[in-house]
Amino acid sequence: MAAPADLVVEIEALGEKLVLARDSIAKQFIGQKRVVDLTLAALVSGGHALLVGLPGLGKTRLVNTLGTVMGLDANRVQFTPDLMPADILGSEVLETAADGTRAFRFVEGPVFCQLLMADEINRASPRTQSALLQAMQEREVTIAGQHRPLGKPFHVLATQNPLEQEGTYPLPEAQLDRFLLQIDVPYPTRDVEREILLATTGATEDSAHAVFTADELIAAQALLRRMPVGENIVEMILDLVRACRPDADAPEVIRQNVAWGPGPRAAQALMLCARAEALMNGRLAPSPEDVRALAAPVLSHRMALSFAARARGENLTSIIDTVSTQITKVEAAA
Question: What's this model's pTM, rounded to 2 decimal places?
Fold first, then answer.
């Protein structure tokens, strides 16, 4: 284990490098700083992210830029209703050699990379969606009885249209839980949209450059797990995640509106992402503000509104914000 002083130096150096990565991404993906920060947090935390937004908001451009900036081998799969698992994972083909002998050879699919973009993931059938379950959790796939490891590191950045529901298959809860974060991509502000317009319709366009290598990203993920977390932050994360489960001890706003809540994987995700949030804001350890800032992206896709709450037009993000504020006040009073 490194000495505390050495750990501080390493954390500060990583924070500075993430600022450079953010600046490089901004050359291609203009504005939307919060979206960029959350996506970087997912990668530095070693997880996957689900980007939810309307078409044309730059989700594909962001993922392509991240592949360049983070030094990762990236592939893209356009999910469609007729896509089959073999189109993602690969398959064995029978080949005939020059001497007439035949043998099976495995042809790798696009999942064998370090950064996979699953574009419009909810357009594929549940059978095809489930092809990514093992890959996302275990970083390997099993084909013809043989375990085949994926790239190191391995991340999935999936996109989804929140409005168009015809011809789509909602992701099952088990797969949603494997995404570290759900990142909502909003419309840009007028000033940002003006900047995008001018930057992308001229004769030349700025290009991003590599800031990390794959090995450096792996080292950053290991360093993130060594960041200290105060006991009060651990308790706050536990209180928040457990309060979002609709049982007898839950806050009234949860009991009235939530059908089911997050599991233990949500607490793990919130712990990692709070560290990443602190890191990108130049702090050496996460604070209650970091936990509150990451609560909705970590928890919203791991919860479901009740039928009555949907009919009333309730919103999970506002419910989570209400609960996290209540938890913070209780922690402060204690």
Answer: 0.89
